[in-house]
């Protein structure tokens, strides 16, 4: 979409033609940006599902996406109740290798278990587990970085196809 518009400032017809051409270009850009946002959101969703850690499948299964054409906004939603713990990590294991963008106020060893760790029962697996925590998987952070890396090319492709 490499357009050149020439205007003769002393010709009303030239000014009207330039205005009409700019209006057409504006509509192309508008439709291309909608396509770009929708495609970028879908690409982010697919990437996140592909890198989300899988233990029971509940976390990856809770990831969805939506696009609102009226506001030209896309969202990737992670519906799992424990997604924050997977993203940021827990316990002393998580504290030893913190998240690249720590959440304000996030506490890794919030119950003070330290080196001894803790034991919990997983009803779904019908067994006990002992842990000293989990390192952060940062799957949301990695998705954000991926989306940033492809955003410019996605917008360019969408505008060229508009």
Describe the structure in your own words.
This protein is of the alpha+beta class and 162 residues long. It folds into 2 domains: 11-87 and 137-162, no CATH class; 90-134, no CATH class. It is 49% helix and 15% strand. The protein has helices spanning 12-51, 58-61, 83-88, 91-96, 139-161, and strands at residues 63-68, 73-78, 118-122, 127-131, 133-134. The strands form 2 sheets. A two-stranded antiparallel ribbon has the order 1-2. The protein has a two-stranded antiparallel sheet with strand order 3-4. A hairpin with a 4-residue loop joins strand 1 (63-68) and strand 2. Helix 1 (12-51) packs antiparallel against helix 5. The radius of gyration is 24 Å and the shape is elongated. The mean pLDDT is 85.
Question: What's the helix and strand layout?
Answer:
Layout lengths: L11 H40 L6 H4 L1 E6 L4 E6 L4 H6 L2 H6 L21 E5 L4 E5 L1 E2 L4 H23 L1
Antiparallel strand pairs: 1-2, 3-4
Helix pairs in contact: 1-5
């Amino acid at each position: 979409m490499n357009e050149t518009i020439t205007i003769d400032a002393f010709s009303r017809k030239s000014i009207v033609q330039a205005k009409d051409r700019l209006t057409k270009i504006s509509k192309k850009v508008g439709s291309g940006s909608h396509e770009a946002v929708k495609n970028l959101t879908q690409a982010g969703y697919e990437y996140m599902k592909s890198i989300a850690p899988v233990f029971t499948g509940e976390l990856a299964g809770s990831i969805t996406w939506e696009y609102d054409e009226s506001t030209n906004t896309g969202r990737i939603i992670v519906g799992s109740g424990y997604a924050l713990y997977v993203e940021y990590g827990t316990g002393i294991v998580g504290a030893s290798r913190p998240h690249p963008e720590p959440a304000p106020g996030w506490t890794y060893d919030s119950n003070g278990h330290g080196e001894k760790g803790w034991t919990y029962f997983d009803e779904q697996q019908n067994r006990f587990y002992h842990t000293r925590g989990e390192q952060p998987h940062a799957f949301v952070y990695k998705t954000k970085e991926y989306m940033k890396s492809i955003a410019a090319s996605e917008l360019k492709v969408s505008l060229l196809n508009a």
